[in-house]
Each structure stands twice: as C-alpha cells, then as structure tokens.
Amino acid sequence: MAVSGAVMVTFLVLHMIGNWKIFFGAESFNHYAHWLRTMGEPVVPYRTLLTLLEVVLVLSVVLHMWSAWSLARRASAARPVKYHGKKKSHAQGYATHIMRYGGITLLLFIIWHLLDLTFFVVNPKGSAATPYERVVADFAPERFWVTAIYIVGVVMVGLHLRHGVWSAFQTLGLRSPRNDRALRLLAGGLALVLTIGFLIVPLSVTFGLVS
C-alpha cells in the first residue's frame, strides 16, 4: 500500500506542475499536452511512453485498493470480536472514515476525471478541441457544478494524502518518536500544497482569471 501510494503521489506532483502550464497561455499548455503524447519519438511510436505511464498508474491504483481490502480482511480475521471497554479515539475514527469512504469518493472522482478530460465523454468541447479549450470550457462560470465536483474530489485527495503519507512513513520504518511531529507536518504540508495546486486551475477558469 505504501509503495503504490508513493507512485501515485509522484504522479500527482508531476501532474499538478504540468497543469500550471495553463497560466502561460494556450500555446504553452497545448504544447505540453502534445509533448506528453510524443515523448520518446522517434525511438518509440506515438504515445508509447504515455501509455506505459498510464498502465503503471492504473496498476498502482488497483494494487492500492487491493492492499486496503487485504489489510481490512486481515484485521477482521485477527480480531473477530470487537474490543470492549476501550473506545476508538476521535482521531482514529476520523482517519478510518477518510481512508475508507474517501477512497471510494476518490475512485468515483477518478472515473469522472477520465471521462471528462481524457476520453472527453462529458466534456462540452469533445475531442475536436484543443486541451486548453477543453479545460476553459469545462470550468466556465456557467458550469460551476463541474468546478464543485473537482473541489470535492481534490479536497478528498488532500485529506486522503494527509493521513496516507504519514502512514507510509510509519509503514516504511521511517517514523520515530523524535521525527513524528516533523513527518506529520510534512504530510500535512504536501497534502495542502497539492490541494491548492490542483484547485487553482479550475477556480482560475471559473472566476475569469484564465479564459
């Protein structure tokens, strides 16, 4: 779970940086989108490396979900009868709900995101438009409900990351009582940066800063 999560976090950071190309104008953003599909040419055919990266990402998502399901089954089998007398803390309950139900919300959000800006099924401009035109049309002021979907999805990503990154440090044996506070701050800071970094694009379009 920790390793597959690390792969996805790396993807999110790179994806966020790529999204910021939109602030340099249509030409820069469209050039970046074209470059993603032509990486490695002419050594490898068109879209080969991007497809391989997508396969790795999908496998990471599947393995992450399988790990969560497998760990939940192990925990249930190891403790078939609930503990008595000691209630779960608010922090533990929060983390459980965020990671469990937040994961389901994230899966639905990923599906919507793919249908929107990868397969163009729900995008108002469709496949004939440029990447820049699709983003601008998608988050136009009159389509604020789409921006709202992304706000909810990205916030859930941030909450999931906040707990998940810290848990990964612990799983990989990097946490100690001495650095626990620093690692928590690092996890929270990364989650905050990614949340703001992803939301700034749709919000900038919705409020007319990018058009």
Characteristics:
73% helix, Cytochrome_b-558, single chain, transmembrane, transmembrane helix, 211 residues, metal ion binding, mainly alpha
Descriptive notes:
The mean pLDDT is 89. This protein has 211 residues and is mainly alpha-helical. The chain has helices at residues 2-19, 26-38, 48-78, 90-117, 131-138, 144-171, 180-206. The longest helix is centred in the first third of the chain and has 31 residues, at 48-78. Helix 1 packs antiparallel against helix 3, helix 1 packs parallel to helix 7 (180-206) and helix 6 packs antiparallel against helix 7 (180-206). It is globular and about 55 Å long. It has a single domain (2-206), classed as 3 helical TM bundles of succinate and fumarate reductases (Up-down Bundle). It is built from seven helices and no strands. It is found in: Membrane. The chain crosses the membrane at residues 49-72, 93-115, 144-161, 182-205. It comes from Actinomadura namibiensis. GO terms for molecular function: metal ion binding. Keywords: Heme, Iron, Membrane, Metal-binding, Transmembrane, Transmembrane helix.
